[in-house]
Amino acid sequence: MKNDENDLDFTLPTTDGTAYLDLMEVVLFKGRTYAEAPTAYSIGEMATQTLAGVTKKSKMYGKPHNPVHLLLYSTDWRFVLVREVLDLVGLWLNRLNPVFATVKYVCPDSDGGAILEHVFPRSSGEFTSFD
Q: Residues of the chain whose pLDDT is less than 70?
């Protein structure tokens, strides 16, 4: 169920009780508008900017009584997060332990569908090859 503005975006009735879903558009600006956005970023820069947005949202909720899930999404090809960025954000979130029960990422694919990726939480074993 869609919630009012200035609230978590959706209420999710589940068999385990109420949970919430919040949305965050991934927008990586260096300028002030889409037109000023660069067409290339470094993996570290994309991950750092994405983590900053997730961390800011996480701090807004304090300690929620019900699970809150975060869905990251890109609507512009310049802001699509590649696997390496998602892995780095996942590693950092595992260390920071945000309030979110899960963090997922969705973006459109070239066939008119969408790709859904799991970002957090992840097992520490998934990061053993990270440098």
A: 2-8, 29-31, 131
